[in-house]
Write a structure and sequence with these properties.
Blueprint (H helix, E strand, L loop, with lengths): L19 H48 L11 H5 L17 E5 L2 E6 L15 E2 L10
Antiparallel strand pairs: 1-2, 2-3
Length: 140
């Protein structure tokens, strides 16, 4: 008599499935997250580059203004009234359509934008930028 071999090692179909589909899903999800984060970071970099390029343009115009006004700049003022049309055809606006903030004293010029929210502090699009914040290397 021959007995049918026992296949105790036969497991249900579910337990023999490969983990490969889950690995592929996790990889795809990670890739999507990386692409989205990179896009946001790139946009922030582009905005910072634009802001600091605007600062360079404004600082150049302010230096020309200073040269024609006995080395002096107003302590505060409207950049458009000061610079257009003699020193610039138009004063650039920040990426959110607002004028850059301007102040001057005997130590130098201060230019700023306070980000999308127009409030102090923040990160990303809400980050403050000044002509003294160390981002000038973006222009190199």
């Amino acid at each position: 008599m021959s007995a049918a071999p026992s296949h105790a090692s036969d497991a249900p179909e579910k337990s023999r499935r490969s983990p490969l589909p889950w690995v592929a899903v996790a990889f795809a999800l990670g890739l999507v997250v990386a692409v989205v984060l990179t896009a946001f970071h790139r946009r922030d970099d582009e905005q910072a580059h634009r802001i600091h390029a605007d600062f360079a343009t404004l600082l150049d115009a302010l230096e020309r203004y200073r040269g024609e006004h006995q080395g002096r700049l107003p302590e505060e003022g409207n950049l458009e009234e000061m610079l257009v049309p003699r020193y610039l055809p138009v004063v650039p606006l920040d990426p959110w359509g607002r004028p850059y903030q301007y102040a001057s004293n005997s130590q130098g010029v201060f230019l700023a934008t306070f980000g999308r929210e127009n409030g102090r502090g923040g990160v990303g699009e809400d980050q403050d930028h000044t002509n003294h914040d160390g981002h000038q290397q973006l222009l190199r």
